[in-house]
Design a protein that fits this description.
Blueprint (H helix, E strand, L loop, with lengths): L1 H8 L8 H21 L6 H21 L3 E4 L5 E3 L2 H12 L1 H18 L6 H13 L13 H23 L17 H21 L2 H15 L1
Antiparallel strand pairs: 1-2
Helix pairs in contact: 2-5, 3-4, 3-5, 4-5, 4-7, 5-6, 6-7, 7-8
Length: about 220
């Protein structure tokens, strides 16, 4: 039965069938409707509605900038134009719960953008958990230099989930002549190569005084 469902949703080359795309779009709609219906605090409805707007805007910006790739690796993964930052900003502004939920929804969008399915848990590692982890930036919301610390945490945690997926699933697809001596470190080096490359570029940019000041003003507008 599981094989039949897999074949119904996933193509032979690991992509999504029309039914698979439809199910993912339905999941996003259910997630958004659920957030709107149950995520509102009646006592602070305006604030919660404003948060939903900011979250939607951040997801849109992250999705658009994820198409602007400085370079891509052959087996997935790329350095984009600061796309991770927008999800981390939501966590930093509104806390880890909102950040993780926004990252989760964004992960589903990433899956729709470039789907590749080995199995359900690989999808969770590479898309759901990895991008939801960016929202953990919210744990430093009230800390000095909180955005910088939070972004670094989200960046490292995203790389961790990609690496776990690499060890559990992707290494089984390496060619037979792949050096056994590299098997232990390859998922770490491969996944953190692009995650840290984008992370370093982003840290440099957000540390610039004009950018830092602009982001501080943007936070005031978001949480006021």
């Amino acid at each position: 039965m599981f094989t039949a469902i897999h074949n119904f949703l996933v193509t032979a080359d690991g992509g999504l069938t029309p039914s698979g795309y439809g199910l993912c779009i339905l999941a996003i709609l259910v997630f958004l409707v659920g957030s709107a219906l149950f995520g509102l605090d009646r006592k602070k409805a305006r604030m919660s509605t404003k948060q939903l707007v900011w979250c939607a805007a951040a997801m849109a910006l992250a999705f658009v900038t994820s198409y602007i790739k400085l370079f891509s690796l052959p087996f997935g993964g790329s350095v984009t134009l600061f796309s991770m930052l927008f999800i981390c900003l939501i966590g930093y502004w509104f806390g880890p719960k909102t950040g993780v939920l926004t990252g989760l929804a964004y992960g589903i969008l990433q899956f729709l953008q470039e789907p590749y399915v080995l199995n359900f848990f690989q999808v969770c590692c590479d898309y759901v958990f990895a991008f939801a982890a960016l929202g953990l930036a919210g744990f430093f919301a009230k800390s000095k230099n909180g955005l910088l610390k939070g972004y670094i945490l989200g960046n490292l945690m995203r790389g961790l989930f990609h690496t776990i997926g690499g060890y559990l699933y992707w290494m089984d697809y390496m060619p037979e002549n792949f050096p056994a001596s590299l098997a232990a470190v390859y998922p770490i080096v491969y996944n953190y190569s692009y995650v840290l490359a984008e992370g370093i570029l982003t840290v440099i940019v957000i540390s610039l005084p004009p950018v830092k000041k602009a982001l501080a003003q943007l936070k005031k507008s978001a949480i006021s």
